[in-house]
Sequence to fold (523 residues):
Amino acid sequence: MKVIYELFVYSLFSLLMLSACSDADDVVADGALAGDNISPVSSFSVEITNADNELLVKWVNPINRDLDMVEISYRDVSEELTRASFSPGCITLPAQSGEECEYLLTVPYFSLYEVSAVAISKSGQRSVIESKRLTPYREEEEVPELQLPAMLNRAHSYMTTLIGLYFGKSSRSCWRTWYPYNGGAYWDGDALVWGQGSGLSAFVAMREASKQSEVENLYAAMDEMMFKGIQYFFQNDQGKSAYSCYPARGNERYYDDNVWIGLDMVDWYTETEDRRFLTQAEAVWNYLIDYGWDETCGGGIHWRELNSHTTSKHSCSTAPTAVLGCKLYQVTGRQTYLDWAIKCYNYMLDNLQDPSDHLFYDNVRPNASDPNLPGDVEKNKYSYNSGQPLQAACMLYKITNEQKYLNEAYAIAASCHDKWFMPYRSKDLNLTFNILAPGHAWFNTIMCRGFFELYSIDNDRKYIDDIEKTMLHAWESSCHQSNNLLNDDDLRGGTSKNSWEILQQGALVELFARLAVLERENR
Fold:
């Protein structure tokens, strides 16, 4: 924030200086053409002093009876500002032939300056320019360290790294897919909307985590650029507006990509009360219900719309739609959101749940005889596909106070913990606990949203403790890299990576941020 403020001040000062001096480029051009009848100054040097923003300029005037004056000019040539953004200062001094001279130049702020001297004859002819570049002295300012709580400090450090390595690296202000950038991807390396959504989830989680802290205003100031970044992907295709894979029409479009962003938008609205975020959440909702749900397979939300609409119905789209319906009901009170949330949740129980362990299969395909009936089931189980029904069950219990939802939540949570955590001894923490098993970090983070929701009901930390110890171990162990990223595929550490994806890194920032909220609430 300090850098942004300084650049603003620099630019403002530049505008004020425009009318105070001749244009530097004209000075250079004129000087380069002149000098046939007047010699340049000699022994030209520029030195720093022990005072802030001072430069001592020394030179010897040319031996020439027509010498009239010497012009000293300066301009900012730092990389942070364009060469045209700061109009130079200039000072004209009377000159005597052969005289040794010096001038104490005061520049407006700390930067790299080009200081020049031109001898001018009585007839106005200008000599060749002599110039030097130098940065003035500046007393080191003591920047007070942020006094952040421990978990928020980790989350803020991690998120700051992500923004520096991944955000705004192309012509669009959005997230890049990989660090380091391999140079071979589409769209200048910008991430597909799935990765964009992960970066947005991390940011929205940080908006909540940073509340009542020293960095709250820092994250609040990022709302505009983060919203602009995700809205590049909001496209109208075939009369339907939704988030596309890439920021242009004609790309594939997925219902699950949209619902993740819709969930972020309603959370963002909850934190800020900015209506445009609620508007986008409702736009996603309309897309899901109007076009994603039909009677194929007896209901449920499709996975993909463009360019070939899926016939199967998926856990990854139907379950989070139930969660989105609950969230929209909570902020608007509109019954239709709750009705649809229950409808989506019941579809999951009836068609995609394994009754033996309460976990959920990936998708169901249409019945061969009647496509409006469910047919074969794809029985792969992924952590996020069970974590979202867990969160939905918790939210439905909060809204309706019906015990059946809480009972189901407990059953799902226990099986998720059994399947996607494993016993581990951390030498770094000197603790034994159940760590998140190696696997897809984003999938696991979405699952953990369900554990956080359950904890908000029963205040039993048994699952939260394992998530917290997992992340603390990852931060303190060889999993944590010198670039401040985490090797996301195995949070135990010990693996070697040479590239890191925003999809996974954003997910892990979200976990730290959610833990930081509990830290702030002393829970």
